[in-house]
Fold each of these.
Amino acid sequence: MSVIRVSVVGAAGYSGAEAVRLLSRHPRVVLTGLFGSAGGRRAAFGSLHPDLAGLDGPEVVPYVEAALLEGAPDVAILATPNEVSAEVTPGLLAAGVRVIDVSGAFRLREASLYPAWYGFEHPAPALLGEAVYGLTEWCGAELEGARLVANPGCYPTSVLLAMKPLVLLLAPHQPLLVTSASGVSGAGKKADVAYSFCELAGSYKAYAAGSHRHEPEMRQELGLADEAAFSFVPHLLPVVRGILSTIHVSFDAPVSDAAVADRFARVYEGRPFVRVLPAGHLPELRDVVGTPRAHIGWKLLPGCRRAIVVSAIDNLLKGAASQAVQNLNRVFGLPETEGLL
Ligand SMILES: NC(=O)c1ccc[n+]([C@@H]2O[C@H](COP(=O)([O-])OP(=O)(O)OC[C@H]3O[C@@H](n4cnc5c(N)ncnc54)[C@H](OP(=O)(O)O)[C@@H]3O)[C@@H](O)[C@H]2O)c1
């Protein structure tokens, strides 16, 4: 049985560490290198994951392209800041290493959006057309053998999984309103007083309303024009992990629970990582945190022309690392569930 050689860059960060944990138990994967920032310290695999004590893995060392290539990986998972992924990807691809990027560096197809939403000129715009947007349940044959996969953002994963099946039912001129709440690990490991315990515990706040970089990604993947009335307001929830998105939708004509259930079943029947709840049951974070699953529920409002749709995921798993492993499995022709169930 052939193995897949995988290196992880950003291995000590929150989503990178989750990827390492999943991959270290994956029956078809060998970890060939774990990397952190150039200024970072070397760290033993076991200090990253005391829960995996006894499993061997490479040390986490500062990232240098030549050091990664020495391990001869088939694929690199990049769990790095956006600019870092954008910079290192072209070299890795040129060296024959496939890339699954957990950052936003290759999610937007329009290079001109990067300065406004991400704050940098894209250094490799030609690759934006090649990157496969890896919302796994919505990918077809383009994922098999892909050289570059752009793993979706955490908020977009929760919203798109819930919204894409319903797009054809939506009233085109009515607003689509999304309120999402994320645990604090969504901001990564960086030390910043705004994310400290005393600033967040016991509180709940909206941030980046109308300016969050996941907004153009959701517009792109839902096929919404710039002028479409879509509003996305992220909130910071004082828990470690999990995202819950509450979406207010309007339909073109009255719909039944059966029609909504049918839309979801057409896409997600037999897909183990998306669980659609019975009509009227809304998901909650505790049922998905620590799992690779999304849970989706809806409630029709009186008159059946409007509904509340709620979607919950673990931001570090279905929103990042486990979706990256689903994508890795598909790229290499393995069952999507390998190493994840
Ligand atoms: N957190 C989430 O819920 C989530 C979900 C989906 C996607 N994402 C995206 O995934 C990426 C990682 O997010 P995160 O939350 O896991 O961040 P994080 O906890 O801050 O970790 C970032 C990692 O990147 C490494 N790094 C920074 N600069 C580097 C460089 N120049 N070369 C090599 N490694 C470098 C850091 O190394 P050191 O350990 O040495 O500092 C760290 O391990 C981001 O692009 C983020 O937007 C995050």
Amino acid sequence: MVNIEWNDSLETGVEIIDDQHKEIFSRVDTLVNLSEEKKKKEIEKMLRFLGGYVVEHFSAEEEYMIDFNYPEYDFHKEEHMQFLKSYKVLMKEYKKKGATPAMINDTQNKVISWLYDHIMRTDKNLAAFLKSRA
Ligand SMILES: [Fe+2]
């Protein structure tokens, strides 16, 4: 299992973005630490959270990119789209088979690894650019 604790190395330095990331981390962390039985009950809530809050968070970042004429907008947006694609696959799996252990594991692992990867590279680049323009 991948670790999902927030730590300072994940900070981008743009407060609004960091606050939203922290919220996502804390929600995923809560899920990861539940018993298998409770996870089954909470996974739907998690999926709804991802489809709601995370999508809103993407929009917030994308608005910044547009407002500040960010040169890597297409690349960054594409990563968001890739996440949404994975999300749709997970949602489909959930609707088809319900909260199976494999599906729960898949959701946790995909969300966690995507988040780390995306924050550490893509969001940090964006934040550095935004700070240089502030
Ligand atoms: Fe992003």
